[in-house]
Write a structure and sequence with these properties.
The chain is mostly helical and about 140 residues long. It has four helices and no strands.
């Protein structure tokens, strides 16, 4: 019987630690009903009841909410509040595309300059050859 009490006590402590970590790492907009400090005190003073209360009433759930279909890392307002993978971040993809376009523009400009120099050299050589027979 004593082992059962020890096991239940450990389960209560583990639940309280998980609830405390969840509460402390939750974004400000994801905490409902009470301020964060109140939830921390409730979890610490009443570990079993406070932990259950946090998971039931204090934490904002994701399923069934208007923002649930958005990619991970976006809150209900659509503003980014957590980092997401670079290939899922539209801002990052846009910057890569702009960088690629500017590199392509630079390459095109470099080719145009080379072509212009080549044509100028051809014209100079052509002018030099035409002047010789006349002179």
């Amino acid at each position: 019987m004593a082992r059962l009490y020890v096991l239940l006590f450990l389960a209560q402590v583990i639940l309280a630690v998980i609830a405390l970590i969840s509460c402390l790492s939750a974004e400000e907009g994801d905490i409902r009903t009470l301020p964060r400090i109140a939830w921390v005190l409730i979890i610490l003073l009443f570990p079993l009841v406070g932990s259950i209360a946090w998971f039931v009433a204090g934490r904002e759930t994701r399923a069934g909410q208007p923002g649930a279909g958005r990619p991970a890392g976006y809150g209900l307002t659509g503003r980014r509040h957590r980092p997401i993978a670079p290939d899922d971040d539209p801002e990052f993809l846009r910057s890569v595309e702009e960088r690629t376009e500017s590199q392509a523009d630079r390459e095109l400009f470099r080719r145009w300059e080379e072509d212009l120099r080549r044509r100028e050299d051809d014209l100079r050589r052509g002018d030099g050859e035409q002047k010789r027979p006349e002179g």
